[in-house]
Write a structure and sequence with these properties.
The chain is α+β, with helices and mostly antiparallel strands and 70 residues long. It has helices at 8-15, 19-27, 46-55, and strands spanning 5-6, 35-38, 41-45, 62-63, 66-67. Strands 1-3-2 form a three-stranded antiparallel sheet. A two-stranded antiparallel ribbon has the order 4-5. Strand 2 and strand 3 (41-45) form a beta hairpin. 10% of the residues are buried. The model has no long low-confidence stretch (mean pLDDT 88).
Length: 70
């Protein structure tokens, strides 16, 4: 099954960020992995976005039964 692909705009709305911020992150090699489909066409796989979100968790939180302090 192919996961959902998010546009820059959709990811920006999800995280309350501008598309310019996402573009800057990409130019610096930061943020979630992305797919460069062609001229001015970027997509983010939903599983990569979720993995990035989980990698940024702070504090004592549990994800799928595992503490991020283990």
């Amino acid at each position: 099954r192919v996961s959902k692909r998010l546009t820059e705009k959709e990811l920006g709305e999800r995280w309350n960020l501008s598309t310019k911020t996402l573009q800057t992150w990409r130019s610096e090699g930061d943020g979630p992995a992305w797919i460069d489909i062609g001229k001015n066409t970027i997509r983010y796989r939903e599983e990569d976005v979720i993995a990035y979100e989980e990698s940024r968790l702070k504090g004592n939180v549990t994800i799928q039964g595992k503490s991020n302090h283990e």
